[in-house]
Amino acid sequence: MPVTHRSNASIRIAGSRWFVLASLLLAAALPAAGQEMTVEAYEPRSTLKVPGGPVTRAKFPFVDAHGHLRARDPARIDQMVKEMDEMNMAVFVNLSGGSGEGLKANLAATKGRYPNRFVVYANVDFSGIGEPGWGKKAAAQLQADYDAGARGLKIYKNLSMFQTDIHGERVAADDPRIAPVWDKAGELGIPVLIHVGEPSAFWDPWDEHNERWLELKMFPNRRRDDPKRFASFEQTMSEQHNLFRNHPDTIFLNAHLGWFGNDLARLGKLLDELPNVYTELGAVLAELGRQPITGAAFMEKYQDRVLMGKDSWEPIEGYHVYFRVLETRDEYFDYYRKRHAHWKMYGLGLSDEVLEKVYFRNALKIIPGIDPSLFPE
Question: Is the separation of the CB atoms in 135 and 128 below 8 Å?
């Protein structure tokens, strides 16, 4: 067979074509710069065009029944009151009051400057529980804190989860050794805002099906799926509900929609059974915002049992999302904290009657020390 000879030029041209083709194929296989990112960094901007927009001021004066404030600097308190006025917040309930001398200092820093703009709650020191007479001493301290100016009691989530007694055993919410404290609160007529447990997803496997996957990635210590360290979600909730049943003369404000914001029918059954139990919206607004039909129906039915609360002062813009969810019928807008909700919000469009109750009338009913002159009659 004859041998075909190719010129050097033709070989160079063919090689160049193959190089260009290979480069194009390689470029197509490599991800674009924008694709190389983590899920934490992903912040899509919606292209949806619908009516509505931010609501920066509440329609009615409101009480934030679930707030935390540890600052005592006068300039910071003055700035806070200015920001309260801008968003129509009449009263801020500081649940982080402490006890004893610490409580007195917190009272002086807030109510000492603005007597009718703050309500301060006391806290319980559970260290030493199990020692003889602990319950009586704790109840006496609550009496002293009330006499100093506290108008409520806040229980943190350490109870039922992390708190141990002098023997190293977990202390459940319905532990009978705490009964004198609950009875004292009932005697004084002050509410107990109690945080027991966390979202049920914290107990679920941390896998691709867990809707709080991002939060658990950002805060791995929030996982509760180790049975050697934590009671189950159902047991933790059961202990709290037993506490409510055992003390019918004490008003309990079950924080964070009782962690049943994803199951409002179950929360409704609890409220139906226990007339001494109320609930609030701190850090769980996203649960209502993703179910506007069911959420609005729940708020209508239980309008006398739900209080406004956010759980943290910062970010201020978070309050604007509360107003928008509760007051409007806006569609598909962002929540203010992605780790709590990777989904979008929808407005419930609550009536003025329901809004007034959630914003201030229910708080006036169960929290002593709120100045009624700050609100419409």
Answer: no
Counting beta carbons within 10 angstroms of the beta carbon of residue 329, is it exposed (0 to 12), middle (13 to 18) or buried (19 or more)? middle
Gap between the Cα atoms of 50 and 108, Å rounded:
47
Closest Cα to residue 102, out of 152, 149, 165, 164? 149
pTM: 0.90
Task: Specify the amino acid at residue 111.
Answer: K
Amino acid at 197: G
Give the integer Cα–Cα distance in Å for 295 and 326: 10
Per-residue pLDDT of the chain (377 residues; tens, 9 = 90+): 444 455 554 545 445 565 555 555 555 555 666 667 887 888 888 999 999 999 999 999 999 999 999 889 999 999 999 999 999 999 999 999 999 999 999 999 999 999 999 999 999 999 999 999 999 999 999 999 999 999 999 999 999 999 999 999 999 999 999 999 999 999 999 999 999 999 999 999 999 999 999 999 999 999 999 999 999 999 999 999 999 999 999 999 999 999 999 999 999 999 999 999 999 999 999 999 999 999 999 999 999 999 999 999 999 999 999 999 999 999 999 999 988 888 999 999 999 999 999 999 999 999 999 999 999 99
- 81 CB burial (10 A radius; 0-12, 13-18, 19+): middle
Domains of the chain in start order, with CATH, are: 62-374 (3.20.20.140)
Query: Which residue matches tokens 């679930």?
Result: 66
